[in-house]
Structure formats: structure tokens, C-alpha cells
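Possible regression after last week's pipeline update?

I re-ran a chain I had predicted before the update to compare outputs. Posting the input and the new output here so someone can diff against the archived version. Not blocking, just want to make sure nothing changed silently.
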Amino acid sequence: MNQLSQLEPQNVFRFFEEISQIPRPSYHEKQISDYLVTFAKERNLEVYQDSHYNVIIIKEASEGYESAAPLILQGHMDMVCEQDSTSSINMEQEGLELAVDGDEIYAKGTTLGADDGIAVAYALALLDSSTLQHPRLEFVCTVAEEVGMDGARALDISPLQGRQLLNLDSEDEGIALAGCAGGGTALLTLPLNRASLTDKEKYLVPVEIGITGLLGGHSGSEIDKGRANADYELAEVLQTLKSQMEYRLLDFSGGNKDNAIPREAMASIYVQPEDKERLQEMISKINQRKQQKYALTDPEYKIVVTIGKENEKVVPEGINMLSENSTTTVVDFIVALPNGVQEMSLEVEGLVQTSLNLGKVRIHSEEAKLSLVYSLLSSKGVSFEKLSAQVNQIATQFQAAVKYDGIYPAWEYVVHSPLRDRMCLLYEQKYHKKMTIEVIHAGLECGLLAGKLKELDAVSIGPDMKDIHTTQERLSISSTKRVYDFLVQFIEKSTN
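New output (post-update):
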């Protein structure tokens, strides 16, 4: 604690550091939710907590602002929990180890959770202020945003009077988001077969093949960067090997979240002793090609191979490798499915319209099945349906089951937005430059909330962040201050 105590604005960073000590992965939000309730009660603020642990905190208008339109401040309390090999933190039970590097805050070995912890910190600082002049403020803090926006979907909006919503879940200062993609999660399940080993196969050589060194990133906002997906890359490597030699697949594991581009993936296979040298040669060539391909986007791309000793002992009893047919099917199925950017927008230059991300791969030994978890995004309903149909068709060909979950609507751009107009005017007056208006290829809760709150006028802003959903996540200190100062000024001018 107290790593951020000297940073300005002190009230924002104090709250940010406090919530960073509270574990808050998706579906484990009770502790942070209770913290928010306690915060409200200690300040005699109106507070609501539902059975999902969503929280609404209300602060009535300051004197002179009673007739001003209420303003909803909105963010989410959960975070994507990723960590690298240097971190031993249990992210379901322990807080983060924060550090400062120049103008940036990061967490040692883990994601920082500024997405969307900074929204929570902003809101608490505003609600805690005794000097802020403001209309009725309604802070909506949701759960499970990172795993399908379950909290926003379940939210009871009856305590809310506001029809102006300021979402604080963006990562680029000076950009006002005015629309976003809709999406959902697809779970594909493929039954597999195990097969007993022949006498010859009992002397197969164990090999581990891993993809490492990738940058990963957010499956929406970073999908257009051309970064490698470790899960898909590993499947391609295994498919190439399959064209030149026989092997048996034992395990395939990669990624942890549907909405994070996987940085690492690992497969365990068994090969014939005579293929050991050829495998090394092939991997070396593939690695060279891949490093050339991703030299700009993933400069640390690496295929790592560990080859066991042959004829030292037979394959241990209990090792239940996939049959030859299932080995081939797993690899071909993953490669056959689409991944990455599928369509670009015709209306907005440079905007991804439709994409999907293979976020998680697992072979379940006990149940003998393969599971794939995808995040699908599209700003067009018809394109989402087209992509879903394509996934369904390929799954059917491989006799796999498909289940969709957490589907949420797009937040469609509206031409007339008084809230956005006032914000852009203040920004130009304050900084002598125009605020950029964008629509993004990522999910925000504004779409779901707009469906609940009719005629909702919404804008999303936030400070500069980079590499969210990765262990390289950083939050700009100076940008955090500028955005907070802007928020204070904007709120105090909200008299109409």
C-alpha cells in the first residue's frame, strides 16, 4: 500500500490503490461490492446492492443544482486477471502489487485492472468530495462485465432517474466513444476418442511444443493490430507437423479468457523415435517463418520445443493419448474455424466491423472432449448472425456442439446527443482542440443500459491506458489527472 500516495489527484489514486488490494476477478465480486456499500453507508449516501452484487450509489444534488438533470456515472468492478510466470499471487484471494514507472502505473507480474478500476476510483472520488458542485449523481457499478456483461443485463434500473450516462470504461484521453459493437461468447465442444497403445507406440517419445512471447491484448480493441493468437498458431504448427509425420496428441491448452488474445499455448504430443530429428528441423523452419511474419506485431514470438528421451522406459501407465483420428480432428477443427478480423466497416474508415477471437482451448482428459471458447463481436446484427452461422456450419461438419452465452446488443451511434455536444464544447474550450468522436470494435455496457433506459444519452471517456487485459497493462498518471479535472469541470457546468 501507499505506492501511489504522492500522486495527483490524491483522492483518485487513494481509492484506486484501495480497490487494487481487493481481489475482483469476474464472478468473484462480493468483496469489492461490499466495499462499495460500506463506502456509501459511511457517507450517508443512498445505496442499492442486488443479489448479483451490482451496486448503485446516489448522491443528491448540491444546493443550486436541484433542477439540473441527474447524471449517471458508470463503470464495472470486475477485472481480467492475467499473470505471468514471475507472479505467485493468487488473484482470487490477494491484492495487486502496484508500482510506478515514470508517468505510468503497472502491477508487477499481473494485469493492473485499470480497466475498469479507474472508473470506480473516479466515481468514489467524486462522491467523496465535499467541494464538488453537482447535479444528482447516480453511480452504477456492475459485475461480470468482462465475461459477457452479466451484471448490466441483470441490473434493476428502478432507482435511476437519470437519462444522461457517462461511461468511464474507455482507454484513450481526448476520445469520446459514441457507439460500440455487440457480441457474445461461443462455447464449442468436440467429443474425442482415446485409444490403447500398440507395443510399438509404448516407446513413443514425449514432446512438448509451446507458443510464447506474444503480446496478446484485448480481443476487441486490439484485434486489428495483427497480433498472433497463440491458440490458433499452435494448431497451425501441429497441422504442419501432421502433414510430415504421425504423432499422438495428449494435451492442448492455451488462453484463459474469451476476450483476451492468448499469449501462450502448449501441446503435449508423442512421436516415433525416428521422427525426433525431423521434428526439430521442421519446428526450426516454422519458427523462422513465423518470426518473420510477426516481426512487427509480436517481436518476441517463439516456438519452444522440449523433447524427452527415447527408449528409457515405456509410456507410463495411465497416459491416455487421443486416437490418431481424434488427434487429426482436433487440429483440423481449430484451423478450419475462422479467427481474427472478418469484416471492416464500410461506414467508418479503419473500424473493424466483425471479428472473433479464440480465447481458450482445453482438452479435458477425464471427459474426453475438446472445448473452445470464442468471443464474437460485430457492430452489425446481420454480420453477427452470418458469423454465427459460419461457426455453426463448421461445428456441424466436425460433429461438435455450439452454445452461445452472454449475447449483448451493439450501442448504435446517434447523430443528436446533447451530452456529447456539451462535452465536446467544454473540451475544445479547455484544451483548444476538438475532441475526437469514435465508434469502437469492443463491447461496452452502454448498449444494454440504453435498452433498459429509454432515450438514454450516453458517452464513454477515460484516461490513457495501454495493453489492457495483459500483464503489460499501464495507466498514465498525468492523463488520469487531466481526465479527472475535466470530469469535475464538466459536472460543475451541468446545470441544464
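Follow-up from reviewer: compared with the archived run. The chain has two domains: 10-181+410-492, 184-408. Marking as no regression found.
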